[in-house]
Amino acid sequence: MAFQYGGYVGQILRVNLTNKGITKEPLREDWARDFVGGVGLSARIIYEEVKANSDPLGPENKLVLMTGPVNGTMIPAASRSCFCAKSPYTGSFFHSIFGGFLGPEVKFAGYDGIIIEGKAKAPVYIWIDDDKVQIKDAGHLWGKDPFRTQEILRKEIGDEEIHIATIGLAGEQMAPYAMILCDIRAAGRGGMGAVMGSKNLKAICARGTGAVTVPNVLKVYNTAIRLNELVTTTPAVKGLSEYGTPRMVGALNEGGILPTRNWQTEVFKGMKNITAEVMREKVVKGDRACFACSINCTKYSVVPSGPYKSIINGADYETVYGFGACCAVDNIEALCKADELCDHYGIDLISTALCISWAMECYEKGILTKDDTDGIELKFGNADGMLQMIEKIGKREGLGALLAKGTREAAKIVGKDSVRFAIQNKGLELAGHTARPFPACAVGYATGPRGGSHHDIRPTPEKMGMVDRKVLEGKGALAAEINHWLILCDSMLVCHLAEPIWGPMKISDTTIEALNVVTGWELDYEEARKIAERQWNMIRCFSAREGFTREDDQLPIRFMEEPVPEGPMEGSYIPRETLERLKDDYFSYRGWDLKTGNPTREKLAELGLDFAIDDIC
Amino acid sequence: MARVSVKTFSVIRDVLGSDIVEVEVDKPETVGGVFDVLLRKYGEPFKEMIWDPNTGEMTPFLIRLNDEMIRSTCDMGREIKDGDRIALIIPLGGG
Questions:
Q1: Residue A183: left (phi > 0), alpha (psi -120 to 50), or beta?
Q2: Residue A323 CB neighbour total at 10 angstroms
Q3: Does the structural domain B2-89 have CATH classification 3.10.20.30?
Q4: Cα R_g (chain B), whole angstroms
Q5: Is 0.90 topped by the overall pTM?
Q6: Which of A40, A262, A338, A516 is the 20 to 30 Å CA partner of A18?
Q7: Set of chain A residues whose Cβ sits within 8 Å of the Cβ of B68
Q8: Are residues A433 and B95, on separate chains, in Cβ contact within 8 Å?
Q9: CA distances, A261 to each of A265, A269, A274, A451, B64 (Å)
Q10: Are A354 and A261 spatial neighbours (Cβ–Cβ below 8 Å)?
């Protein structure tokens, strides 16, 4: 019997790697309605199935690959999918979202999502060919890098069109910030690759020939046409097709909000050599789009020869921010090589870059010496030193073994107050979006379940001047409503790059329209908001059950103690007392307990999350 | 009459044809006056870069006026003087 809501297949695939069990289960309709899909649905499943204090790298953790109802339709930017698990990097529920084609392909094969549990005795991969699902030997793939693995699998299976998620050496070794490469896009953050590696799972391959059913094709078509027009004409989305996500590097630098030299400043003097315009001129050879997307933000870049010879799908903004400004390297070709090396080893690019920029600051301050770096002059701006260090992290050699633990753990081991320049929250290094001048973004980072994720909060309303960044009042509410549009979009699943259409201050009418037209629901704003609030509270419950409290909602020490030293944002920072005030504001708005930061009994009952009351109240 | 420099980036720079353009602003000598001049000089291609078709209004963005950050939503009336430097920090969604 067909699932009663449009956009869903109505079936979840469960693969138990311990006993090689493969089962197909009906998707619970009440969970689809209450949690939508993607991140929201994964959070509900993982809360139910992964017990408190489970080892993230033990067989008891589960890796969920989930799609959303809008995935696989013609709605623009509906290409995303997510890997979710308890993170070995942060200890919290984590969702790592990626674009491309794998999510829609999984739906076409007949599944809304895949729950992977247990641990295989030896390396395996999962091959999903419509309704035929097999667990196959991956011994010959172990040790191979992600792109080589994909190449072998496509040849072995005999189908160039399959879509593949795979780990590299870092995932196999369960490095805490190992990522999963999904065709050419990465589920980069939070160590989802380590969870996959802990299960001896090298890859997931999918081929589907089915389709997504919607209640009224013409209505979806008309909505898609209108949204495509919006996507291509909205000023805040313009430039992504031409220049990709680095399009904003020059403007950020001019605005004094380009994090530089491990966030010691926010103005990079070498910026002019690594702008999107320079990239386009020197290395970009083509554009690539994800499923059903008219933005084409991915750039295909080639450095044809020389020491930085490389071929990448990028570089994205986070490469330019992390390896460029934060490591003070102003050579675009070296940045391409850095990007390629991260994919080669299967490590999260943002955390890798911030671990190296932290080490560079340690080196320049005499906390680390050449004895620690195997003779590498690890100063800011040393491109070759930076690249050598990526190799060491990938192989977990020498100082690389320390940096592979992340800045929080590395700072604990190194000591000497180096924690003061570890740019992380809850263990996750921050992406390249500053919060020092932006209070709503600051409290969003602090309270975000993942820590340093720029997709639990967005700085956009403050960065675009839609609100007065200098006013604290109302910023808790703003952060909460930004959380809501993000989590709803991460559950449908649509790409945040079309942010002005889905948000950016609160859930937009367009977001609700896209969800309604695909599912056949008739949600109004309050109903959609309540779903998003339920999803956000669900994830907070997971954190609370793991022992997280208000005390864990912090910012990097630098953000709280060191004002921006130069540029138009000079003097901006978020002192501790300001952060505490913002947290009070945020928790009050959410109806959470001010002392613990946990959802209250009343709030959980209001949202239909009664099952969590005894766990956290 | 105030002569000011306007710095832009990415696709807006492409429309203006240069990283920095000089414009002369007659009455009113304000930030808004600068945009009036730019709209007259560069026409529809420039308007498309800053006009939100969803709202029918100019999209919000930050402006750097010399060493100060101001907002398009409420600071268009700010007076300018000869030699001022303006940079358009727009728009910054995504990434």
A1: left
A2: 33
A3: yes
A4: 12
A5: yes
A6: A40
A7: 568
A8: yes
A9: 7, 10, 15, 21, 23
A10: no
Q: What is the 8-class DSSP label of residue A324?
A: I
Q: Give the helix/strand (H/E) hosting A482.
A: helix A475-492
The count of residues in chain A is 617
Q: Mind telling me how many Å the CA of A202 is from chain B's nearest CA?
A: 29
DSSP character string of A89-134: TTSSEEEEEE-SSHHHHHHHHT-SEEEEES--SS-EEEEEETTEEE
- The whole-angstrom distance between A500's CA and the closest CA on chain B is 7
Q: Which residue has the tokens 């997280």?
A: A548
**Residue A607 neighbours by CB under 8 Å, 6+ apart:** A530, A533, A534, A537, A599
Q: How far is B27 from chain A (nearest CA, A)?
A: 26
Q: Which of A234, A275, A463 sits opposite B92 (nearest CB)?
A: A463
Output the pLDDT for position B93.
59
Residue spans per domain, chain B: 2-89
What is the spatial distance between Cα A182 and Cα A150, in angstroms, rounded to a whole number? 9
Distance CA(A291)–CA(A100), nearest Å, equals 6
Task: Using the Cα atoms of residue A475, residue A187, residue A532 and residue B53 in order, give the sign of their dihedral.
Answer: positive
C-beta atoms surrounding A374 within 10 Å: 14
Q: How far apart are CA A498 and CA A519, in angstroms?
A: 21
Using CA atoms, how far apart are residues A321 and A347, in angstroms rounded to an integer? Answer: 17
- Report how far residue B57's alpha carbon sits from residue A508's, in angstroms, rounded to the nearest whole number: 17
Phi, psi angle pair for A116, to nearest 5°: -110, 125
**φ, ψ of residue A12 in degrees (nearest 5):** -115, 135
Which of B62, B73, B91 is closest, CB to CB, to A235? B91
Distance separating alpha carbons of residues A353 and A189, to the nearest angstrom: 13
Of B67, B89, B93, nearest to A237 by CB-CB distance is: B93
CA distances from A72 to A77, A208, A494 (A): 10, 11, 10
Cβ-based contacts under 8 A for chains A and B: 121
H helices, E strands: number in chain B: 2, 7
Q: Tokens representing A194?
A: 């380590």
Residues contacting residue A264 through CB under 8 Å, at least 6 positions apart: A361, A421, A558, A562, A565
For residue A371 the two structure tokens come to 């004895």
DSSP string, A395-428: HT-THHHHHTT-HHHHHHHH-TTGGGG--EETTE
3-state helix, strand, coil in chain B (%, to 5): 30, 35, 40
For chain A, which domains are there? Answer: 11-207 (3.60.9.10), 238-428 (1.10.569.10), 435-616 (1.10.599.10)
φ/ψ (deg, to 5) at A50? -110, 110
* Cα–Cα distance for residue pair A57/A284, rounded to 1 Å: 38
CB contact under 8 A, B93 and A497: yes
CA-to-CA distance for A347 and A175, rounded, in angstroms? 8
Ordered alpha helix ranges (H), A493-574: 499-502, 509-519, 525-545, 557-561
Tell me the mean pLDDT per 10 residues along chain A, length 617.
90 98 98 98 98 98 98 93 98 97 97 98 98 98 98 97 97 97 97 98 98 96 95 86 92 96 98 95 96 92 98 95 98 98 98 98 98 97 98 97 98 98 98 96 97 92 94 98 98 93 95 98 98 98 98 98 97 98 98 98 98 96
For residue A508, which residues of chain B lie inside 8 Å, CB to CB?
none
Q: Is the confidence at residue B54, as pLDDT, over 90?
A: no
